[in-house]
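sry for the spam today, last one i promise. struct tokens for design, 103 residues
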């Protein structure tokens, strides 16, 4: 059972259309703001390990800064192949806290 963990405060969220990296315990996640909706996904790109939190947000995808693989922020699926995917974590914004469900 996953417990919601505080990862950021609301004021630390990336602006609309941007992403950032955020450390949560032993993990670093990519936090992205797509159309005002906050998403939390793996930060490590499954291609060659690029930092997705340093990528750009485009059409509901996070685009890796290294070789431009694009992953849907809701499903985690890569645009070019259903076999490549990243993990998506449920996010809740409660008051000033941004919580992520991590197991
Ligand atoms: S490392 Fe992400 S696309 Fe290559």
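last one done:
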């Amino acid at each position: 059972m996953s417990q919601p963990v505080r990862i950021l405060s609301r004021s630390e969220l990336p602006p609309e259309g941007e992403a950032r990296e955020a450390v949560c315990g032993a993990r670093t996640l990519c936090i992205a703001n797509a159309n005002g909706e906050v998403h939390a996904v793996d930060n490590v790109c499954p291609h060659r390990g690029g930092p997705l939190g340093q990528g750009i947000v485009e059409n509901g995808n996070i685009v890796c800064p290294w070789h431009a693989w694009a992953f849907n922020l809701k499903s985690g699926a890569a645009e070019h192949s259903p076999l490549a995917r990243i993990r998506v974590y449920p996010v809740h914004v409660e008051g000033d806290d941004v919580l992520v469900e991590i197991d």
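The first strand starts at residue 3 and ends at 9. ok im logging off now
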